[in-house]
């Protein structure tokens, strides 16, 4: 997982921003599918 992505996830969790967390999770799963992981 890229460092910038981890930083955004940590920030979203600290702010308890559920919308941001969901958005980041969707982006991450989409990214992984594209990479074939």
Question: What does this entry look like structurally?
Answer:
It is a single chain. With 37 residues, the protein is an all-alpha fold. Helices cover 81% and strands 0% of the residues. It has 2 helices and no strands. It has helices at 3-14, 18-35. α1 packs antiparallel against α2. The mean pLDDT is 89.
Task: Give the secondary structure arrangement, pairings included.
Blueprint: H1 3-14, H2 18-35
Quick structural summary:
With 37 residues, the protein is mostly helical. It is built from two helices and no strands.
Record keyword descriptors for this entry:
single chain, 37 residues, mainly alpha, 2 helices, 81% helix
Care to count the β-strands?
0
What proportion of the residues form beta strands (DSSP E)? under 5%
User: What's the total helix number?
Assistant: 2
Distance between the termini: 12 Å
Shape descriptor: flat
- Secondary-structure class: mainly alpha
Uncertain segments are none
Largest sheet: none
Radius of gyration: 10 Å
Order of helices and strands: HH
Mean pLDDT: 89
Q: Helical content, roughly?
A: over 70%
Protein name: Cortex morphogenetic protein CmpA
Pfam families: spore_CmpA
